[in-house]
Structure formats: structure tokens, C-alpha cells
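U., I forgot to send this yesterday:
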Amino acid sequence: MSKINCAPAIPNPATDTAESITEFRRQETLLKTGALQSAIFNSANFSSIATDAKGVIQIFNVGAERMLGYVAAEVLNKITPADIFDPQEVIARAKALSVELGTPITPGFEALVFKASRGIEDIYELTYIRKDGSRFPAIVSVTALRDDQNEIIGYLLIGTDNTARKQVEAAQKLLDQRLRDQQFYTRSLIESNIDALMTTPFKNYFTDPERAEAGIKSREKAQRSPATEEAAPF
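Result:
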């Protein structure tokens, strides 16, 4: 049985019409777009969750399965992305957006996609909750999906695990705090011992202690006996 070649036939500019060349380019673009979409939805490095216009999950890629512990069949046509985020953070986001945009926003899926539904770029951080109850921070980018009439037909939420960056930030914060503590300790140590440092014989810190001590005594004597020089006569 012969193989079916799904690739568009390569046009011959000498014999084919402009219409056939245009159709070839259109098919080529579709193939490239399809390959790109396939790469996105089959990537295990980030989660891709697509919903219908009401927010019910329609696509749950392998990255989402790996990150969240669900298989696609457990969530498709059953839940919305709001069900796998920290509910308190979703409520807080709804309140913050209501204040920012001056309109009431209902906690839940609406709070996740409200900006995207208005054509506003929206990237934010929320905590995902896995099937086993464990949690991890994620950076989420939301895009509204529209048909040829520009009507919203769904939403795409692409998420990346932000745990590693959070760990680096926490380690840096701890290091900065330790550095501040060390600086405070060193300053306190110097200030508490300043009198002792001032009264320690300095000659012990010079390579020629006799000369150093003589110089110090000479200066002290000069400070105790101010000069009484008179102006020289004309």
C-alpha cells in the first residue's frame, strides 16, 4: 500500500497560476502553524491548558499532566483552571483587579482571564495545587482565543514552574540577611571596644616602637604647651 503524501505539492512558477501559488503558501503556513501548535501542546517543559469560552478545560497537555499530576481525562470537560489554583490567591486577585480596573470581578475563572478577555496582555504569578495536594508557584500567561469574527471561543493559559527562581531568591535573601547581621555584629564589636582600642600602647604596632613612642609623646607635649611666639620686630 502506497504512502499518502500530505505535504502540499510544490508549485511550478512557469506553469502554475498565481492562485495555486497562493494556495500552496497558505497550506505551507497551516503546516508550520500545526507543527508549532503540536510542539507547544506536546512540550513537557510548560503546561498548556486551553478552555472553552466558559472556562471549562478542553486541552490539557503533557506538561500540565507532569506538573499537576492529573491525566487529561480527569480534567477535560469537568473543571476550570480556577479549580487547580490556590483559591485564596484567586480571591485576592479578584479583589485587586476590581480595585485596579474599577469594576467588580467575581472570584474564580473570571479573575484569571478578565484582562485577556479585554485584549490586555496578562502575565501573573499564582500557586498551582497538584492532585496530591502539594503546591508550587507558577508564572501564567493568558491569551484569549478568537474566531474569524473576533468572538472569544476560549482561553489559553501557559504556565511555567517558578520553584527554582523562588529558591534562588530565598537563598539570596538569606545570604543578604547574614551579611547584614555580620556587618552589624562587627560594628557593635568595634563600638563596644573603642575605649580599649584608644588606650592600647601604639608602640606595639610599629616596626620601630621607640621612635613611634617618642613621636607620640612629643605631639602630646606640644598639645599641652601652646606656642607663645611673638611677632618679630620690623
